[in-house]
Amino acid sequence: MRILGIETSCDETGIAIYDDGMADLPAGIVAHRLYSQIAVHADYGGVVPELASRDHVRKTIPLIKEVLAEAKLTPADLDGVAYTAGPGLVGALLVGCSIGRSLAYGWNLPAVPVHHMEGHLLAPMLEDNVPDFPFVALLVSGGHTMLVRVDGIGQYQLLGESVDDAAGEAFDKTAKLLGLDYPGGPVLAKMAETGRKGRYKFPRPMTDRPGLDFSFSGLKTSAANTIRQEITEQLTPAQVSQVKADIAYAFQEAVVDTLAIKCKRALKQCQLNRLVIAGGVSANSALREKLAQITKKLGGEVFYPRPEFCTDNGAMIAYAGLQRLKAGVDTDLSFKAKPRWPLDTLAPV
């Protein structure tokens, strides 16, 4: 079976075709395209929902045509259309939902609504090294930070989540305080590479109490106070650059340690040693290294998608949609976008 995946939940337009290998093509991604709106939103220092929606309107259909051309396929060669139905920005979601359902109707194909976070959770399945069920998943991005026990597709138990800022959001906000360009998270991580260990020490929030919930707003506040105190007019430009790098190092170290402590706690609680990390922040090399150390000590392994599939993309939506389609999931044209959609409400496959 082959399925077209459409991702438009925020500021990236992702289109892909996935084949399960049961036809004349090998299993895997047949073709994919990703358009990022970073340049559109950079001047505003964050995503502007109305601009995001308009850009999805401009880019989605041309990207679908490009993917079909690259794959040398026509709509008649497809078995379904999957689209991100939530959670996300409602305007952006409506673009993908409308186009996905319209194409499915026009092509006489099943339409499959996909949960955005299920797409991220299953993104490591796009790789050669695939985790077996059950496992613990850390979903960490600009909009979400959560720990989930995964016993199968659709069999999700929420273990903990952020009570305020997500980890990626804290990265971006702290980067903005440091005067870094949008999106700031990856830039902050790069700056941290030249930072000095031990110069500053930030808290590891909510690690001194039981439970698996997260909180990053206080950590962001600590970073903001340090920036105000340490970066003064008396410093030379070179000194300012070094102080910023030291703060970036300490901030990243605190976030990584916090995530690692909670992941270790979750693995022990579930008596598992397989860990999946997905979402934009899962591309962070310091986080990957730390979690690899933890799972190795537990006799397990950490799994994650390649960097291009850590951020929002159409391939993960196509894969998740295909699993749902094979299980008989289909929807009529009345299905609406869901800007809020708890992951643990999904039906098992």
Basic shape: globular
Fraction of residues in helices?
40-55%
Strand content: 15-25%
CATH superfamily of the largest domain: ATPase, nucleotide binding domain
Keywords: Acyltransferase, Cytoplasm, Iron, Metal-binding, Transferase, tRNA processing
Organism: Colwellia chukchiensis
Cofactor: Fe(2+)
InterPro entries: ATPase_NBD, Gcp-like_dom, KAE1/TsaD, Peptidase_M22_CS, TsaD
Description:
It is an enzyme of class 2 (transferase). This is tRNA N6-adenosine threonylcarbamoyltransferase. GO terms for molecular function: iron ion binding; tRNA N(6)-L-threonylcarbamoyladenine synthase activity. By secondary structure, the chain is of the alpha/beta class. The chain folds into two domains: 2-123 and 309-345, 2-Layer Sandwich (Nucleotidyltransferase, domain 5), CATH 3.30.420; 133-304, Nucleotidyltransferase, domain 5. The chain is 42% helix and 18% strand. The chain has helices at 38-41, 49-71, 90-107, 116-122, 167-177, 184-192, 217-230, 237-270, 285-297, 314-326; strands at 2-7, 12-19, 28-36, 80-86, 111-115, 135-140, 145-152, 155-161, 274-278, 301-303. A hairpin with a 4-residue loop joins strand 1 and strand 2 (12-19). Helix 4 packs across helix 10 (314-326), helix 5 crosses helix 6 and helix 5 (167-177) runs parallel beside helix 7 (217-230). The longest helix has 34 residues, at 237-270. The two termini are 17 Å apart. The model has no long low-confidence stretch (mean pLDDT 95).
